[in-house]
What does this fold into?
Amino acid sequence: MSGIHHVTAIAGRPNVNFDFYTRTLGLRFVKKTVNFDDPGTYHFYYGDEAGNPGTILTFFPWEHAAPGRVGVGQTQTTALRIPAQSIGFWAHRLVEAGAKHEAPIRRFGEVVLEFTDPDGMGLSLIGVPGAENEPAWTTGDIPAEHAIRGFHGVTLMLDSVELTGAILADVLGFTRVGQEGPYVRFKSEGAVGGIVDIREAKGFLPGRMGRGSVHHVAFRAKDDAEQAEIARKLSEVHGIYATEQRDRQYFRSIYFREPGGILFEIATDAPGFTVDEPIATLGTDLKLPRFLESKRQQIEAVLPTLEVAA
It folds into this structure.
């Protein structure tokens, strides 16, 4: 395993979500499809140029979803990597965009700029020395030297570190590397998407899933064999049983609840987002899996119009 594959969250209005992540944050709109289990709802994917694992932030935009509440048993914050010298650029940009944000702080020796998206989802930008040398998707008003470089990691809010930490270390390839206050850090070998922080929050209210909540965190498996080995370790060593493999068109997935109650996914790197459209036009057309293609007309009739003009 080499870290986080993607993070999937719940949004409200599709156009507001699209505008914030493509225009304010400058991510590429990698794929426009539907929730395979609820095909009357979009599933949006944002990421780098090709939607590489470790850069993919996805949303189910349910316009009338009630707001969620961050609490124990949920992902508190999704963190994105930027060059260390870009914190000032992004602080100014968030002010201009009217995004709710906090003053920069330091945690684990890194500068952290915390903010929320329009639905209240907790996000942060982490200034990483050397990140300017990593590939980046750029837009007209976000220069390459300041662009987001994928995930830094996630912060999970849990009642206890130990049981979840054992899954991260024994099964998912992370190493416990430090603690700062209530935050315990686990790190994988991969730089992008390689951090999981656990905030131990005994006695806090449990979280409530809704608009602005992270639905699940997906970790990488290079192929089906590695995914199967993870499932074996989960069951034989920890007594946790994953679902059967599900074909998500762009990766193959299994799911399980970690001991703190957060939904984890193991997603294969292959086949990727160019399986049904070329890299140059990713995100342009509505893409449906084969089993839904016969219902395209009905699906398109109920989906809201997405305004994608520059």
